[in-house]
Design brief:
With 154 residues, the chain is mostly helical. The chain contains eight helices and three strands; from the N terminus they run H-H-H-H-H-E-E-E-H-H-H.
Length: 154
């Protein structure tokens, strides 16, 4: 759709509405179509499954059972589960979700929008532009970062 729009082709109202909705959802403006493409790209299924299995103890963790939380995402609101052993004075919780689908959607939004994962998105775009398979390299990048997006290995 972005290519059609850039080439001056007329888009249907439903297509324009979808583009506007996605642009707003991802916190971008209409002048940055290349950034939208970078954010809407594929997240390798193998990486999603590996992270979910690892962070939720294969779905057996308290957070997975009580809150459908597969990825250990934190929240500072009331919509979460207080971790056992949380340091005194800490305010974070592990975000809980209505369903597993909601947990996966939040994970995808986090990967595609949070500044901590910018290097992941940049590598993914480079690989996409070079027509190379994504799964192996982007997974290597993700496992080099901690939860704050800091590289663990250089």
């Amino acid at each position: 759709l972005l290519d059609k729009k850039a080439n001056g082709e007329k888009l249907r109202k439903a297509q324009l509405d979808w583009l506007e909705k996605i642009t707003i959802l991802y916190g971008l403006d209409d002048e940055a179509p290349h950034r939208l493409i970078t954010r809407l790209d594929q997240i390798p299924t193998s990486m999603v499954l590996a992270q979910a299995a690892n962070e939720s103890a294969w779905g057996r963790s308290r957070f997975a059972k009580e809150g459908n939380a597969l990825f250990g995402q934190w929240t500072w609101g009331n919509d979460g589960i207080v971790p056992n052993g949380r340091p005194f004075g800490a305010k974070y919780r592990v975000k809980s979700f209505k369903s597993i689908a909601h947990s996966i959607h939040a994970y995808m939004m986090n990967i595609n929008t949070h500044p901590a994962y910018r290097s992941f998105r940049e590598q993914r775009a480079l690989m996409r532009n070079a027509d190379k398979p994504l799964a192996k390299r982007v997974t290597e990048i993700m496992y080099q970062m901690d939860e704050n997006g800091c590289l663990l290995f250089s």
